[in-house]
Amino acid sequence: MDPSTTNGFRRLRFSDGAGSDYSDIFAAEYGGSDFASETFATDDARYEYTVVGDDDLTLRTMRAEGGRRGGVIGVRDDHVVFWLTKGRLEMHFADRTRVVEPGSPYIASASEAYRFESDGTVYNGVHVSDRFLRSVGRDLGYRLPDGPLLFDQQDEVVARREPLRHLIRELGPALVDDRVLGPTRTALNRRLAVVILDTFPIRNRGDDVPVANRLRDAIRFIELHAAERPSVPTIAAACGLSQRGLQDVFTRTLDTTPHRFLRDHRLDRVREELLRADRAGGTKGPTGISAIARRWGFTNPGRFAETYRDRFGEDPATTKRASLSAQPEVGKASWRVRRAVSFIEQHLDDALTLDDIAAAAGVLPRRLQQLFREERGESPMACVRSMRVAAERNSAAGNSASD
């Protein structure tokens, strides 16, 4: 363990290689309290656990290889939001068992005890104190229960947008900087707490509908009616929010406006159709670029091409050429390139490697590089970089972007 503290900020590291016993993690973090019992790591388990943050909020990682870990976690002072990028975790609560695998985030409420077992996990998480989360909730005007603050899991329609992971990626460098203290750190912590409150429904609120459910309903309505280009007032009415309330929740949670979210969703659907165009079982109706664009409400070809290029880093024609340049039914393998590109799009926030992308595409790394050069004129990692640049430019455009 190598701790350092400054005005509530701490940076801790535990690992089997540094001589830390697995139980040291819990004893150090919770003042030696017995909230964690029966904790164990088998002799062949290799682990590294890091903690960075202050008393209000910490970022944590666990990288474990080999062996098994487990124990009982009792009632505690903080809520835990985490996601796995590798491995498997079983959580046994009093009334249910949950198996967590890589993918969507999971929240464990502070007042719920559970027994856990895991093996070979890579874990990233946010621990936020109940006291701090309640304070932020009151400032937002949330109606919070007098008793334990209990959360339900994110709805899949929200989870696939990964709002918390995107925000952590943005704020991460400042959150792990021990020079960022006082009001500045509190403001960063607050932004993360707001996203948690906005995207994980709070239980026991009587007839009050959590904002998380209203956000879910807004996204679903947009996805269902995107081609009709519904107005912001229409979207707000459909999810039971005022226009101002809708604008606020989209801005603070998804870092966008409802109008821009709708436009981006329409662009995404155009891209999907271009990638499926002229294929058996593919898009219904005309498959030309202009026809597909009009189907999703883009009537100005020049403006459509510009916004498409800003979002995806390539022209619509380039997307379609890449899709049609080679087809699996004639013995070529561009479907592997499409699979690789789709994997990159879904994991832009992760530390992607060529091996990761090749595994997702089901081909050896050297072969994937060859396919990318032949069909896209760039390497897989160059594709990652260009897509990240496009995503960052798209994010930086903010509210200034228009249809």
Would you write up a description of this structure?
The chain is an alpha+beta fold. 46% of the residues lie in helices and 19% in strands. It has helices at residues 24-29, 130-140, 156-159, 163-175, 182-199, 211-225, 232-239, 243-254, 258-276, 289-295, 301-312, 316-324, 334-346, 354-361, 365-376, 380-397, and strands at 4-6, 9-15, 36-41, 46-53, 57-65, 69-73, 78-92, 97-100, 106-108, 114-129. Strands 1, 2, 3, 4, 5, 6, 7, 8, 9 and 10 form a ten-stranded antiparallel sheet that branches. Helix 2 (130-140) packs across helix 5 (182-199) and helix 13 packs across helix 16 (380-397). The longest helix has 19 residues, at 258-276.
Question: Quick one: how many beta strands?
Answer: 10
The outline comes out as globular
Main sheet: strands, sense, barrel: 10 strands, antiparallel
Task: Estimate the helix proportion, in percent.
Answer: 40-55%
Mean pLDDT value: 86
Q: Helix- and strand-based class?
A: alpha+beta
Radius of gyration: 23 Å
Q: What is the overall number of helices?
A: 16
Which regions contain 5 or more consecutive residues with pLDDT less than 50? 1-6, 326-333
Instruction: Please state roughly what percent of the residues sit in beta strands, choosing from under 5%, 5-15%, 15-25%, 25-35%, 35-45% or over 45%.
Output: 15-25%
Distance from N terminus to C terminus (CA atoms, Å) equals 53 Å
